Amino acid sequence: MNPGEPTAAFHTLGCKVNQGETDAIAGMFKARGYAIVPFDAPADVYVVNTCTVTHLSDRKSRQAIRKANRQNPDAVVVVTGCYAQTAADEVQAIEGVDIVVGTDRRSAIVDLVEEHRRSGETVNTVYDSCRIERFEELPAAPERSRARATIKIQDGCDLYCTYCIIPYARGPVRSRRIESVVEEATRLTGEGFKEIVLSGIHLGAYGSDFNADLAKLIVELCRIPGLRRIRVGSVEPQEFTPELLEAVVHPRVCPHFHIPLQSGSDAVLERMGRRYRRQDFLDVTRKIQQMIPGVAITSDVIVGFPGEREADYLLSEELCRATGLAGLHVFPYSPRRGTPAATFPDQIPSAVKQERAQRLAKLARELASDYAKGFVGQIREVLAEEQVDGVWTGHTDNYLKVFFTDPAGSSPEETVPVIKREDLVRLHLRRIRPDGALEGLPIELA
């Protein structure tokens, strides 16, 4: 950092879409001459990218905003993201907030900061998310400390599940054109990234706003020379069309799919406004498992939804076991103001929600461990991501976390060149650790 160079710091809450958006915004600040510093450091500008999926997300967002103001009361504090979109006036009222930008017009943030530094006027650009009509392209600018790059290909959601605030925060479905996604993926591959992650708010709806779909995009991406891995984000059970199933069996597509379940009870799924039932979830997961041996299927489950009986909860446990999930995110139901479910009768007491969440989280750990144990003794390719004290961590294509050391001198018959971040390394998976991750021994670069 040069003396006198303006500085900007960033804090991201919530999903991987948010993280990718933060990276893009940071890239815009860099291009305008700002040095990026840690959020804990003094900075001239703080950008907080917020989340509102639960009450806890709102609270953490407010805490991050106040932390920025404490660290430098003279800094420009910018608040963006889903919480800013759904509670713009509330956010603007927080002491120290200078600029509020919702889930659109992020490409103008640097200009807004520069204007504020000249005029001192506070700015609120938030407008009704239902009026957002275009996909805002924010060029991917992944940190070089990361081994994979994320491309946001879609925004918005039209499903309006009864518990979910996100359609109100993100607006209607908008998609990025196939040629634009391919162009960016080609650029990132040329910069050395071997793995691209496709992200979106409702990924399975990609292209529904024009004549395209996720399957067509994946087919085009698989043609990019040098792109070794394409990782697909969350896709709803009912959106695995025959065309998409055919596309994802390509060897460049990572055999890891996140398919939200939310509940194993048909009665609860109906009250949630979900577009599938438990048998649909079971059918699609079994079909994928038959087509792609060893595939990792992960999921989300909400416990304590209004009216959920113990028998309903047990159906969720049963279905998670039956599908042999590789991982599971568990969420106690959190009422969101403005959603239908927040006013439903038979709200579940907090203690019951927490108890069910703990039980399901225990099952999630067991399922993840059982899945990982099935790969001990195998040889798998791992993307080298981070090295600390000589120990590397990375992930297999099916998203198993693996620890391994640089092999120099470790074995006379196993010779591997010096490993670098973003290398794909063939590892012999030797054992499972107490934390559920695997340990491996490098054999060769892939």
Automatic annotation (TrEMBL):
InterPro entries associated with the record: Elp3/MiaA/NifB-like_rSAM, Methylthiotransferase, Methylthiotransferase_CS, Methylthiotransferase_N, Methylthiotransferase_N_sf, MiaB-like_bact, rSAM, rSAM_horseshoe
CDD domains from the UniProt entry: Radical_SAM (cd01335)
Domain spans labelled MTTase N-terminal: 6-118
Gene3D superfamilies noted in UniProt: Methylthiotransferase, N-terminal domain, tm_1862 like domain
Ranges of residues in domain Radical SAM core: 143-370
Reaction equations catalysed: N(6)-L-threonylcarbamoyladenosine(37) in tRNA + (sulfur carrier)-SH + AH2 + 2 S-adenosyl-L-methionine = 2-methylsulfanyl-N(6)-L-threonylcarbamoyladenosine(37) in tRNA + (sulfur carrier)-H + 5'-deoxyadenosine + L-methionine + A + S-adenosyl-L-homocysteine + 2 H(+)
GO molecular function: 4 iron, 4 sulfur cluster binding; metal ion binding; tRNA (N(6)-L-threonylcarbamoyladenosine(37)-C(2))-methylthiotransferase activity
Annotated SMART domains: Elp3
EC number of the protein: 2.8.4.5
Keywords associated with the record: 4Fe-4S, Cytoplasm, Iron, Iron-sulfur, Metal-binding, S-adenosyl-L-methionine, Transferase, tRNA processing
Pfam families named among the record's database cross-references: Radical_SAM, UPF0004
Co-factor requirement: [4Fe-4S] cluster
Function: Catalyzes the methylthiolation of N6-threonylcarbamoyladenosine (t(6)A), leading to the formation of 2-methylthio-N6-threonylcarbamoyladenosine (ms(2)t(6)A) at position 37 in tRNAs that read codons beginning with adenine.
Family per record: Belongs to the methylthiotransferase family. MtaB subfamily.
UniProt-recorded name of the protein: Threonylcarbamoyladenosine tRNA methylthiotransferase MtaB
The species this protein was found in: Heliobacterium modesticaldum (strain ATCC 51547 / Ice1)
